[in-house]
Design brief:
Layout: E1 9-18, E2 21-22, H1 24-33, E3 39-40, E4 51-52, H2 60-63, H3 74-89, E5 102-107, H4 113-126, H5 135-139, H6 143-152, E6 158-161, H7 167-180, E7 186-194, H8 198-207, E8 235-244, H9 245-250, E9 257-266, H10 279-292, E10 299-303, H11 310-324, E11 329-331, H12 334-337, H13 344-358, E12 360-361, E13 377-378, E14 384-385, E15 390-397, E16 401-409
Parallel strand pairs: 5-6, 5-7, 10-11, 10-15, 11-13
Antiparallel strand pairs: 1-2, 1-8, 1-9, 3-4, 7-8, 9-16, 12-14, 15-16
Helix pairs in contact: 3-6, 7-13, 10-11
Protein name: Beta-ketoacyl-[acyl-carrier-protein] synthase family protein
InterPro entries: Beta-ketoacyl_synthase (IPR000794), Ketoacyl_synth_AS (IPR018201), Ketoacyl_synth_C (IPR014031), Ketoacyl_synth_N (IPR014030), PKS_Beta-ketoAc_synthase_dom (IPR020841), Thiolase-like (IPR016039)
Keywords: Acyltransferase, Transferase
């Protein structure tokens, strides 16, 4: 085997704000329990689909002391809370680290879309004089990364990525490249979105993307199940602290896992439908494995994109079977969390790192009858304790974006 030309990247800090809980431990415990979070959402009352997975008990003023929270859209609030947890978890202090060598890369599919919807309503109802002067700094998708840089004293590269639902994974891959090239020594990277809004819910419903199981919300998000009918809209953030492994070891930090490869591709096929051949996903996965210098038969686990939509799940499962065979035990944590949009890839990368750290694979919630034609080992009903060395996290997005991350147990 050829030795990779780049050093492994250590994941030394994890911060999570998800429908499964506020904080890394709360999210991990709920995801491993396999208990779904979907429920009827009062903010969506009157819409054809009023299901969502909300972050529970989130109080911005309490959770973000010292921050003027009214100046931040909800997605930025999530990102900031997750980033603070990740940095503290890594044992780093923004007051003392070298800010010039610290970067921020955050992905988001929509940025502050709730702010935009609200301020557009004010424009129509009250006139331009009552539109908030903070509209643009709250709405612009890059602003979460900008706020994090200010809060964390990060003066290195600050980047926003947007590849729809692959945005968080794309951000982590970009962060790894910054470390590989020596552009910085620490990167705070992940994804955030808060798209549980009437406009987003109505638009996704019109596309036919959302589950319509309003009579039984808890069972609505059902990846790989024969009776799946769409995803459940969710919100939240996942943020990782990434360092070169040698730097992390030098300061006696204990990584959760190592990021050893990544790959990306485009279907170049359709704006919202995946290419049924799976050629694009296959390219991203094979590129990531080659980048990591890992053989397909060495992959022990896959945290799949697994949205619960009819087209995604069968296409992705066929790719995994073709590339990995029965070797990798597959799960989709969206059965519990719903679909966090641009944050999904980052949250799922964090959960993959935790899976390797705990040597425990969370179950795919609501999987009662496997879709015929799916020939991979799907973990269902209960978390599975097993020996794990290499794992893959896959992310797909509207526009044909595909991303894959390869992690190794530390």
């Amino acid at each position: 085997m050829i030795t990779p030309a780049h050093p492994p990247i250590a994941i030394t800090g994890i911060g999570l704000v998800t429908p499964a809980g506020i904080g890394r431990e709360a999210t991990w415990e709920r995801v491993c329990s396999g208990i779904p979070t979907a429920a009827r959402d009062p903010a969506l009352t009157g819409l054809p689909v009023d299901l969502a997975c909300r972050v529970p008990d989130f109080e911005p003023a309490r959770h973000l002391p010292g921050v003027t929270v009214r100046h931040l859209d909800r997605y930025s609030q999530f990102a900031l809370l997750a980033a603070r947890e990740a940095v503290a978890d890594a044992g780093l202090d923004p007051a003392t680290w070298d800010g010039d060598r610290t970067a921020v890369v955050i992905g988001s599919a929509a940025g502050g879309v709730a702010t935009l919807e609200h301020q557009h309503s004010r424009l129509l109802e009250l006139g331009p004089a009552l539109v908030s002067p903070l509209t643009m700094p709250m709405f612009l998708p890059n602003m979460a990364a900008g706020y994090l840089a200010i809060d964390l004293n990060a003066h290195g590269p600050v980047v926003h990525t947007s590849t729809a639902c692959a945005s968080g994974a794309t951000a982590i891959a970009a962060a790894a490249d910054l470390l590989r090239t020596g552009a910085c020594d620490v990167v705070v990277s992940g994804g955030a979105d808060a798209m549980i809004t009437p406009l987003c819910a109505a638009a996704f419903h019109r596309l036919g993307a959302l589950s319509r199981r309003t009579d039984d919300p808890a069972s609505a998000s059902r990846p790989f199940d024969a009776d799946r009918d769409g995803f459940v809209l969710a919100e939240g953030a996942g943020v990782l602290v990434l360092e070169r492994e040698a730097d992390a070891r030098r300061r006696a930090a204990a990584p959760y896992a190592l990021l050893v490869g990544h790959g990306a591709s485009s279907d170049a096929h359709h704006l919202v439908r995946p290419d049924r051949s799976g050629a694009g996903i296959t390219r991203a996965l094979l590129t990531a494995l080659a980048d990591a210098d890992v053989r397909s038969e060495e992959v022990d686990h896959v945290n799949a994109h697994g949205t619960g939509t009819p087209l995604n799940d069968i296409t992705e499962a066929r790719v995994l079977a073709r590339v990995l065979g029965q070797r990798g035990a597959v799960t989709s944590t969206k059965g519990v969390t719903g679909h966090l949009m641009g944050a999904a890839g980052a949250v799922e990368a964090a959960l993959t790192a935790l899976t390797l750290s705990h040597q425990l694979i969370p179950p795919t919630a609501n999987l009662h009858r496997l879709q015929p034609g799916i020939a991979v080992d799907i973990v269902a009903r209960h978390a599975r304790s097993t020996r794990l060395r290499f794992a893959v996290s896959t992310s797909l997005g509207f526009g044909g974006h595909n991303a894959a991350l390869v992690l190794r147990a530390a």
